[in-house]
């Protein structure tokens, strides 16, 4: 895929994956994060969850990191109203300094692998630190063809038991889990649909048009089986 064309589509989206502020609030409650906690949004995208973390935890100090520089810049601009307690920069979530009371990693840990990512995060946590992450999950039973096609580019996808095994292999234990399904995906795809329409109205190159078609295919696959396509949001702590 042409990266420049890909980011032409994604440049002005409010999110880079399914989710909603309620997911962030739930994870904070499970993790017991409060007060002047130190938090990292690892793989922050354009900062939707960074903003939610800052709003729900008004005394917390938050670092936001993303490999894509323009996303880090978008997060910085989006969270400027929070002042110096929110900082965003371009960097790898595998090389965080810490220590953090909570590492939030929505829809990005699979870039490292669940086990490998959690192992990398361990030295970055405080003694009571927790990790909240979301990971693609199969819901069990016979999967419709739309679900198989949707996850075709992620052959490592597994079910909830498989994710639990990867968590255990990293030396962590789960505190609680929650499905990210339905409305949080609409919150991602509806703005993408509007962005696709706006770009087409302006006229686009062949490379961008190819990315737009891929986006439309992805959205159509999701709309065929929205009750079967999900992430599992997990809050875990080292054992």
UniProtKB/TrEMBL annotation:
<dbReference type="InterPro" id="IPR041698">
    <property type="entry name" value="Methyltransf_25"/>
</dbReference>
<keyword id="KW-0808">Transferase</keyword>
<dbReference type="GO" id="GO:0008168">
    <property type="term" value="F:methyltransferase activity"/>
</dbReference>
<feature type="domain" description="Methyltransferase">
    <location>
        <begin position="39"/>
        <end position="121"/>
    </location>
</feature>
<dbReference type="GO" id="GO:0032259">
    <property type="term" value="P:methylation"/>
</dbReference>
<dbReference type="InterPro" id="IPR029063">
    <property type="entry name" value="SAM-dependent_MTases_sf"/>
</dbReference>
<dbReference type="Pfam" id="PF13649">
    <property type="entry name" value="Methyltransf_25"/>
</dbReference>
<protein>
    <submittedName>
        <fullName>Methyltransferase domain-containing protein</fullName>
    </submittedName>
</protein>
<keyword id="KW-0489">Methyltransferase</keyword>
């Amino acid at each position: 895929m042409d990266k420049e064309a890909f980011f032409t589509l994604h440049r002005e989206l409010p999110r880079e994956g399914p989710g909603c502020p309620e997911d962030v609030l739930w994870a904070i409650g499970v993790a017991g994060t409060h007060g002047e906690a130190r938090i990292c949004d690892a793989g922050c995208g354009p900062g939707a969850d960074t903003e939610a973390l800052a709003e729900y935890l008004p005394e917390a100090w938050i670092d936001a990191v993303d490999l894509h520089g323009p996303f880090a810049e978008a997060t910085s601009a989006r969270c400027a109203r929070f002042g110096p307690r929110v900082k965003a920069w371009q960097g790898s979530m595998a090389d965080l300094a810490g220590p953090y009371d909570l590492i939030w990693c929505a829809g990005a840990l699979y870039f490292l692998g669940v086990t490998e990512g959690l192992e990398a995060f361990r030295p970055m946590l405080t003694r009571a630190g927790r990790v909240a992450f979301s990971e693609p999950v199969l819901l069990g039973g016979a999967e419709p063809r739309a679900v198989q096609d949707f996850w075709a580019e992620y052959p490592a996808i597994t079910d909830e038991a498989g994710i639990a095994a990867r968590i255990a292999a990293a030396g962590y234990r789960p505190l609680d889990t929650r499905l990210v399904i339905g409305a949080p995906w609409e919150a991602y795809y509806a703005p993408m649909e509007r962005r696709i329409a706006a770009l087409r109205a302006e006229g686009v190159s062949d490379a961008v048009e190819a990315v737009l078609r891929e986006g439309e295919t992805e959205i159509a696959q999701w709309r065929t089986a929205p009750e079967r396509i999900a992430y599992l949001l997990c809050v875990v702590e080292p054992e």
